[in-house]
Amino acid sequence: MKQYKTEDVRNVAVVSHAGSGKTTFCEAILFDSGSVDRLGKVTDGTSNFDFEPEEVKRGITISSSLYMIEWKKRKINILDTPGDPNFSAEVAAALQAADIAILAVDGVDSLKPLTEKVWSNIEAKGCPRLLVVTKMDRERADFDRVINDVKEALKVKPLVLQLPIGKEAGFKGVVDLLSMKALTFDGDGKSLSRGDIPAELREQAQSKREVLIEDLAEVDDALMERYLEGEELGADELAGALRKGILNKVFIPAMICSAVLNRGIQPILDLIADACPSPAEMPPVVGRTKTGEEITRKPALDEPFCAYVFKTLADPYAGRLTLFRIFSGKLSPDSNFLNASRDVKERFGQLLTIQGRHQKSLDSAQAGDIVAVAKLKETLTGDTLCDEKAPLIIEPPALPQAVISFAIEPKAKGDEEKITQSLAKLAEEDPTLVVNRDPQTNEFLISGMGQVHIEVTVEKLKRKFGVDVNLKTPKVPYKETIRGKAKVEGKLKKQTGGRGQFAVAWLEVEPLPRGEGFQFVDKIVGGVIPRQYIPAVEKGVSESMNGGALAGYPVIDVRVTVFDGKYHEVDSSEQAFKIAASKGFKKGVLQANPVLLEPIMNMEIIVPEEFMGDVMGDLNARRGRISGMDSKGGSQAIKAQVPMAEVLKYASDLTSMTSGRGIFSMEFSHYEEVPANISEKIIEASGKRAEEED
Ligand SMILES: Nc1nc2c(ncn2[C@@H]2O[C@H](COP(=O)(O)OP(=O)(O)OP(=O)(O)O)[C@@H](O)[C@H]2O)c(=O)[nH]1
Ligand SMILES: [Mg+2]
Predict the structure, then answer these.
(1) CA–CA dist 49, 67 (Å, integer)
(2) From the CB of 259, is ligand 1 less than 6 Å away?
(3) 350-403 confidence digits (pLDDT tens)
(4) Cβ distance 227 to 213 under 8 Å?
(5) pTM, whole model, 2 decimals?
(6) pLDDT tens for residues 535-590?
(7) Residue 392's closest CA among 327, 442, 459, 315?
(8) 138 lines ligand 1 (CB under 6 A)
(9) Which residue among 32, 41, 42, 62 has the greatest number of ligand 1 atoms within 8 angstroms of its CB, and so is best to mutate?
(10) Would you call 129 helix, strand, or coil by DSSP?
(11) CA 544, CA 556: separation in Å to the nearest integer?
């Protein structure tokens, strides 16, 4: 394959909220650039980006896809990302590989709460960005409204480069305000004609151009001076100001298109090729040495090789495919390198370029490019690959916290092992998938970013690995503790022929502050319990803490003091003291006012204002305590603490409450007492309440 210079590469990630038209826009790019012969559609399964069966079935993007095209002799790597918040980690990962973010906003729906979330990802990355207003052919598509919303909600300055020609279904093309020409598209949209601006748009175009020129002049003091003196600025000067303004993020250039009709795509490609920065113009990548010192690598060929792995594909047959962005140096096939994040050496086989679901082999790759290799052994997403002699680690973006958990069990007995292995494979390509066994409930749990994430995981388990599983709401890991103190005698006395068993341990049980766990205090004096039996007493207590006296849940936050006891020369043993202590502890807990504790979660919920009342009322009904509210451009962020037992299915409940427009995040905060009426039901249901015995 042709080798491109770093200066001739452009890396763009198309990002936005769900369904804004990102994939369709990317399809039109493939078609216009001649990479494919037919315009791919997400609606009929012919998409070159959304090709996984789980994506086709739902008509949404789940996994980001890469496709390389050529436009004006430039190599443009396009990363199409999912908009669904279930897969938001894919967006952050794609932005790590890209230099330019294209925010695709639906011309009808404009911004949504989620667009702001995505925008904060772009801001965190700090890269140049473009605004593409999509679906201009739809009824009530309104470019001006989107521009105003972007200005207000995202606090950036849109740079309007175009005007639409024709409305809705009659959207024919655009007025290019820089060249003051009308660009119209015919037939399949590939043929573009340049002509005069239609008479009815001339006046509007003129006034918009004036604003545009002034905005561009602001990029450069010298240019501004000449502009203010009334001088005419040349096309080259304006183009230079546009490049500089994009690179320095002075504004966000705004363009329009209809991807379904394939209108307006080519001018956007021109802007990417002509005015957007190449990797060579990007600041050096920052990493750290093993000892934490900061080091940088310039995007140049004479720097040591370094690359960041932003994506892993795990195919059960073809094996692992590792996608990475090269930040410095160059690379040839069959070379060795260091995975600095894991401190292991790996060997590259064949270098590959990714074209949607297909791959092509590459002779070499260099700074600025996005490529892949197959069958690396140790390397996973988020790792840094580098020259052995010049190691550095690039910090991966923080992964979002899982918000939903399910207990998972095989439909067929004996598939447990296969489930564990297959889930581990899936977690390789999806770092937001968390798989673990709850030590308390002994359930096998999968946790993720939402209902859809978990459902997709289950479908992939079946499709890729042939394992069928059932999902169940997980059990809440309740705990038990005590509120009062008690002094009790733990006693074992058995005289049934032969050698007897005898031990007495007097214990004091008392509560500890929340989160302190377990303390054991030995206050035995005068050898009333011989030294060698004290560890057995502690063991007897700690083992019986695993199943409390109320409902069989683990007991936490207690101090147990052994302060007196009795023993027998012949009949006492370690075992006897262990049993005596265990009986004593259970009795002590029952006498010390035992209570049930439940996990409380910290939640942040973001919803459009219109759903505020419903969501707040619902939180109250779930015993939630609202701790803060913050309004951000049409949406409300609510912070609350809610018992875990009440939000096990919150992801799907919020979706139905807000027609899918709400998002939330949740993490464990602390344990708290369960209110008495609820506690009584849980204890009843457990059937494990202990009776006091002697
Ligand atoms: N009328 C019209 N519909 C469009 C256009 N672009 C996309 N659509 C439709 O909008 C819907 C969503 O399009 P996608 O391209 O899948 O949107 P997306 O942003 O990639 O969606 P996610 O990846 O799931 O976030 C589909 O039904 C498309 O056919 C357009 O330019 N005009
Ligand atoms: Mg998509």
Answers:
(1) 8
(2) yes
(3) 899 999 999 999 989 999 999 999 989 999 999 999 999 999 999 999 888 777
(4) yes
(5) 0.82
(6) 999 999 999 998 888 888 899 999 999 999 999 998 999 999 999 999 999 999 99
(7) 327
(8) yes
(9) 42
(10) strand
(11) 11
